[in-house]
Amino acid sequence: MSRTVIHGGLVITASDEIHADVLVEGGRVAALAAHGTAAAGSWTADRSIDATGKYVIPGGVDAHTHMEMPFGGTSAADTFETGTRAAAWGGTTTIIDFAVQSVGGSLRGGLDAWYAKADGNCAVDYAFHMILADVNESSLKEMDLLVSEGVTSFKLFMAYPGVFYSDDGQILRAMQRAGGNGGLIMMHAENGIAIDVLVEQALAAGRTDPRYHGDVRKVALEAEATHRAVQLARVAGAPLYVVHVSADEAVAEIAAARHKGLPVFGETCPQYLFLSTDNLAEPGFEGAKYVCSTPLRPREHQEALWRGLRNDELQVVSTDHCPFCFSGQKELGRGDFSKIPNGLPGVENRMDLLHQAVVEGHISRRRWIDIACAAPARMFGLYPKKGTIAPGADADIVVYDPHAEQVISARTHHMNVDYSAYEGKHLTGRVETVLSRGVPVIDRHTYVGRAGHGAYLPRGTCQFTR
Ligand code: URP
Ligand code: ZN
Ligand code: ZN
């Protein structure tokens, strides 16, 4: 059994910071021991990694990605191969992607299609949520089977009428089912029916530029949908996870629900923490690069998101990685913002951007690891296999240099997309080495992984509610 020792680093988990060496054996963490102790000195190993002056952190868990997802007449530009490779470059060793039920189709059919897309192609481990695009008697029954098979979370949309949208009755039924089978409902909370009216009115008035995407998707319509989702979950007796929260009023709805003791959880994404409507308003058609839903908000909303992350009103930061090239994809919406495919690239940038938040004093180092590794693993039934460094855990470990400087650019990133949403941003901190189940994937800034190393992860149910 191959043995690796990572020595000299500061091990950071969601709960502790310890100056310890880490012994990895057969793909798992075997032991931790303080530097210089007899225990650490007695370890023999095939490989030794010097982490002196570096952080030793769990591999990131990105609980919201869309590789190869069909959307708006095109498909997200990263395949499972390119997207998971980029994830590894950025210190993320687990992704949870979304399999999609087609309208009129079964959950089984959608899930099998996504198994086939990912199988043999991933550089790091992966799991699936299921998008419910057609809630009916038969798909409701199938939810039970998926939970027993390890697909334990289901995304519903209050937005995108005619595509993924579910009405309140369908939502209530799906929540009731999840309440009974242990599944977790993930909600895209925007009032899509009202938004579509505003879209039609904006286009009729000649307001066609990307910035109007942000205008019509009102804060009030995110807050209203969030409130409604909370009340429906409360009636159903089911837990609720609100995805890609962007507006201060939506954070307030989640905080109020949690204050009442309801099992309501929230996720935000780096784009809402670091970008704003200023980006959507960039001249020419540049704003199209920043079109996603929920939309970017005015800068003033960011403080509520940071506060929410510090106070545990929001538990998780995922990327909602859904990349579309500017050339040929985002351009589909020239002259009509509603035709711009929704989504931003970011799977490679999340760990670094959140470390930058540590540098800038928004969050502590342990909170960084909590929101990026431990909490997503617990939320989606993968802890402590993923999300921590402890005996028995998978040896998904990142050696992170907290002092290295870098500048984000599409010229140097590894995502299969022709722009970066963070072009030119200076960051302190950089991934140096990444192990996935003890196997090097990034070795001192060189990719040494392979497509097919990544394994499928059946998941347990949400560990925040049991
Ligand atoms: O704009 C986004 N978020 N695109 C991906 C689909 C979704 O709603 O998460
Ligand atoms: Zn969504
Ligand atoms: Zn998404």
What does this protein structure show overall?
Pfam families: Amidohydro_1 (PF01979). Residues 55-433 form the Amidohydrolase-related domain. The chain is 31% helix and 23% strand. The chain is of the alpha/beta class and 466 residues long. The chain has a domain at 59-379: Alpha-Beta Barrel (TIM Barrel), CATH 3.20.20.140. The strands form 3 sheets. Strands 1, 2, 3, 4, 5, 6, 17, 18, 19 and 20 form a 10-stranded mixed β-sheet that branches. An 8-stranded parallel β-sheet has the order 7-10-11-12-13-14-15-16. Residues 188, 243-244 line the site of one zinc ion.
How are the elements arranged and paired?
Layout: E1 3-7, E2 10-12, E3 17-25, E4 28-34, H1 38-41, E5 47-50, E6 55-58, E7 60-65, E8 70-71, E9 74-75, H2 80-89, E10 92-100, H3 107-118, E11 125-131, H4 137-149, E12 153-157, H5 168-181, E13 184-188, H6 192-204, H7 211-216, H8 219-236, E14 240-242, H9 248-259, E15 264-268, H10 270-274, H11 277-280, H12 302-310, E16 316-317, H13 350-359, H14 365-379, E17 397-407, E18 426-436, E19 439-443, E20 446-447
Parallel strand pairs: 1-5, 2-6, 7-10, 10-11, 11-12, 12-13, 13-14, 14-15, 15-16
Antiparallel strand pairs: 1-3, 2-3, 3-4, 6-17, 8-9, 17-18, 18-19, 19-20
The chain binds N-(aminocarbonyl)-beta-alanine (URP) and zinc ion (ZN) (2 copies).
